Amino acid sequence: MASLNTQSRGYARKQQIRPLAGSLLALAIGFGIATAHADDALPKLPSKTPLKVGFAQTESNNPWRLAETKSFKDIAAKCGWQLVMTDANSSNSKQVSDIQNMIAQHVDLLVFPPREEKPLAPVVLQAKKAGIPVILVDRNVDQSVAKAGRDYITFIGSDFIDQGHRAADWLVKATGGKAKIIELEGTTGASAANDRKKGFDEIIAKNPGMTIIASQSGDFARDKGRQVMETLLQAHPDVTAVYAHNDEMALGAIAAIKAAGKQPGKDIQIVTIDGTKGGMDAIAAGELGASVQSSPFFGPLACDVAQRYAKGEKIPTWVKVSDKFYDKSNVQQNMQDGY
Q1: Mean pLDDT, range 313-338, rounded to an integer
Q2: What's the CATH code of the domain at 186?
Q3: Same structural domain for residues 120 and 16?
Q4: What pLDDT band is residue 184 in, cutting at 50, 70 and 90?
Q5: In-domain check, residue 99
Q6: Residue 338: inside a domain, yes or no?
Q7: Are 193 and 241 contained in the same domain?
Q8: How many domains does the chain have?
Q9: How far is CA 169 from CA 21, 244, 324, in A?
Q10: Same domain, residue pair 151 and 13
Q11: Which of 9, 82, 103, 133 is found 20 to 30 A from 203 (Cα to Cα)?
């Protein structure tokens, strides 16, 4: 399981802040930004057992999300939590509605992975206005709207930019610095997709022999990744490498590459992020080159943060998760990490 890094660097310093479009800003103000920012004090967490904790999941259509949800279910009793759980079925509007319903139920604490940065930021401010503390896990929100340490307790998650750097560094070495790359991006607007792309593209730009010939969203889904890869293979038959923002899209790409009569891992090198069991099996089979771990086990971490926050301890604005790296040199001895 990933471990906590006690560095107190704020997530906001790592993220490129972009101004909101006028219409979104107007909507956000309508949700009460001005009121929320007037009082910078974070809501308190009640000292009682059980705590009523709302966990608003984005979707449950892949092993990563299932493992994340399970980690909260597994820790709930030990942490003294009564969980209220929802599934947004890959819909920003449903996730916002789910969280608003939890606010109306007066949960004691909200914990959730925002599906996208901008649409989920205003509801964080609604929770603050209602006196409910929030912990964000896995993905963050737009820091120009809702800021860690001011509007919510903290962001618990990986350094997505660094994940992109590590994936790119491996691919440069694996290809001898010469490759024509297809990039399969995650959900458009998600912090994980934005930053994994930023990190990877930064390294590739420094290597003149490496070219990203196509980049398109596969929405972090296996079948969508397969469909996108099939189309891009037809348009770019000269592709020699694939960077997928998660294992599920990489596995979809492997299926598409095989269907096109090519050998993944030989004709086309593939690097990805997650460290799922399917991804690790593909590394062992020689079809996937490497995967940067992105741990989904946030339940125990969120429990620890909530307990320390309730005691009055100062919580860093970014509780950073350390991630392993898997390739053919170490995958067999780390199979127990897969999920």
Answers
A1: 97
A2: 3.40.50.2300
A3: yes
A4: very high
A5: yes
A6: no
A7: yes
A8: 2
A9: 35, 14, 15
A10: yes
A11: 9
Given the structure tokens 């599920």, which residue do they identify? 248
What average pLDDT does range 82-108 have in this prediction? 98
CA 157 to the chain's CA centroid: 7
The stretches of 236-298 forming alpha helices (DSSP H) are: 247-259, 277-284
d(CA 104, CA 93): 16
Q: Are residues 257 and 127 in the same domain?
A: no
Query: What does the pLDDT read at residue 89?
Result: 97
Residue-level pLDDT at 116: 96
Please give the Cα distance from 157 to 146 (Å, whole number).
17
Q: Is residue 79 part of a domain?
A: yes
| Cβ pair 81, 50 in contact under 8 A | yes
CA 314 → CA 3, 9, 46, 79, 135, distances in Å? 18, 13, 16, 20, 14
Question: Which 3 state secondary structure label does DSSP give 303?
Answer: helix
Place of tokens 């009564």: 82
The encoded tokens of residue 202 equal 């930064």
Contact 118/191 with Cβ under 8 angstroms?
no
